[in-house]
Write a structure and sequence with these properties.
- The chain is an alpha+beta fold and 88 residues long.
- It is 26% helix and 34% strand.
- The protein contains one helix and four strands; from the N terminus they run H-E-E-E-E.
- The chain has one helix spanning 2-24; strands at residues 45-52, 55-62, 65-72, 78-83.
- A four-stranded antiparallel β-sheet has the order 1-2-3-4, with no helix packed on it.
- A hairpin with a 5-residue loop joins strand 3 and strand 4 (78-83).
- The longest helix has 23 residues, at 2-24.
- The chain is rod-shaped and about 85 Å long.
Length: 88
């Protein structure tokens, strides 16, 4: 009976410990909302958008050329730009 009681107390302590660890290790998941305006060149139009892991990809068409701009999902900061051009 003593062994069963000690095992129960240890198990409850482990569960409470895991819950406390996850509560205090939130990694900033409750961040404030971000409001950003991305400026596009004149005459550009958004063709498509996609989300993958922690990035947002926006495909735009500028003067007949296609360009993909990526943004960080959490901060909405620009992460990169990929331009496509035809070979001469």
């Amino acid at each position: 009976m003593l062994i069963a009681g000690i095992t129960t107390v240890v198990a409850l302590g482990a569960v409470i410990g895991v819950i406390g660890y996850r509560v205090f290790r939130a990694d900033g998941s409750a961040a404030a909302p971000v409001d950003v305006t991305a400026l596009l060149p004149k005459g550009a139009r958004v063709v498509a958008t996609a989300v993958a892991q922690d990035r947002i990809a926006v495909t735009i068409e500028v003067g007949g050329a296609v360009e993909i701009r990526t943004f960080e999902a959490k901060t909405l900061r620009p992460a990169g730009r990929l331009r496509f051009a035809t070979e001469p």
